[in-house]
Write a structure and sequence with these properties.
The protein is an alpha+beta fold. The protein has a single domain, classed as Ribosomal Protein S5, domain 2. It is about 35% helix and about 20% strand. A hairpin with a 2-residue loop joins strand 3 and strand 4.
Amino acid sequence: MADTNRGDYYYGMGRRKTAVARVRLFPNGDGSVTVNGKAANDYFGGRDALLATITAPFRELNLDGYNITVRVVGGGTSGQAGAIRHGLARALVRMNPDFKAAMRKAGFLTRDPRMKERKKPGLKRARKAAQYTKR
């Protein structure tokens, strides 16, 4: 078990789209979530869906009493929330390997491979072509 007084924590890195989150999980905390130096509620503007995404691993395991600090870069708010969830699940598994089966079943340990498709030459967007005119 880690000792928070000494600064011990469990680490997990998560990725989603172009966002990368480095998550530190401190046991024996008051349940605070800090993202880039701000409270998660302030950072994500109070969007409940994003806050629910972040705390999903805790709800899956029925856990509380952990402090979380996150450094996240890249992407938008939705991608960042997904990256935090991925990193938090990895940190929980590092803390207790017995959590791995539940995290895997919920799909939190799998990196979501979906990315934005690149624009192709000759097209307006990735797949949108100019309108065809017969005459």
